[in-house]
Amino acid sequence: MSDPKLRVGLFVTCLVDLMRPNIGFSAIRLLEAAGCDVTVPASQTCCGQPAYNSGDRIAAQSLARKVVAEFRDCAYVVVPSGSCGGMIRAHYAELLAEFPADRAEVERLAARTYELTDFLTNVAKLQGVPGTFVGTCTYHDSCSGLREMGVKAQPRALLGQVQGLALKEMATPEYCCGFGGTFAVKYGEISARIADRKCEDIAATGADAVVLGDLGCMLNIEGRLKRRGDTRTKVYHVAEVLAGMTDE
């Protein structure tokens, strides 16, 4: 029976919903394996990060207040994305400072928002992941997850539980992939060069797959690998590998 203290609201993220819903289903499988009672608010959309990064403060505030209301009754909010989790935890307080009546709710939401692997490791304390993977993987540290959410050891510890998986580190796993949300749109040539360096680092490991925790980075890396002619290296979200939902 699920522990009532682990009533988790899954913030799916708009990219996962639109581009790779398998990540969301993988996250649910993992959270349920950890004994959580998972709810997915049907009205959720975006965390407001694209608007915030583009200077549309009013739109970002509207979306942020919507998130606060939608997850009010959840003991925890879990996000399979370091960037969206970082938006909630690191930026909502400043973004919504103009609404002092919301301050307590905003602070409460930030305090109970976790990136998926951080939650599974440090809160749910998942022991024994469902997935298996025969081959080698290398892990890319997405910038927001690493720097805003403190995600580094957690995904590696969980990947260490995957039967058959061997982890081979890149020379510079913390180096940016070049996505950076709207950065890739505004500065396409710079973004492409940064992505090239990341792809070279991945290739040097000889790994069968690159695994990471943010779909924006996934799409950027996967697209750049294919443009460089690499159709061998697979790109997976860490939740897909841990849950055994890579369709391999």
Question: Could you describe the 3D structure shown?
Answer:
The protein is globular. With 248 residues, it is α/β, with parallel strands linked by helices. Strand 7 (209-212), helix 12 (215-227) and strand 8 (234-237) form a beta-alpha-beta unit. It has helices at residues 14-19, 22-33, 49-53, 57-70, 82-95, 103-111, 116-122, 143-149, 153-159, 183-186, 188-205, 215-227, 238-243, and strands at residues 7-10, 37-39, 76-79, 113-115, 132-139, 163-167, 209-212, 234-237. The protein folds into two domains: 4-122, Rossmann fold (3-Layer(aba) Sandwich), CATH 3.40.50; 132-243, AF0625-like (Rossmann fold, 3-Layer(aba) Sandwich), CATH 3.40.50. The longest helix has 18 residues, at 188-205. A four-stranded parallel β-sheet has the order 2-1-3-4, with helices on both faces. It has a four-stranded parallel β-sheet with strand order 6-5-7-8, with helices on both faces. The model has no long low-confidence stretch (mean pLDDT 95).
Q: What is the N-to-C order of secondary-structure elements (H for helix, E for strand)?
A: EHHEHHEHHEHEHHEHHEHEH
Model regions low in confidence, pLDDT < 50 over at least 5 residues: none
**Largest beta-sheet characterization:** 4 strands, parallel
Architecture of the largest domain, according to CATH? 3-Layer(aba) Sandwich
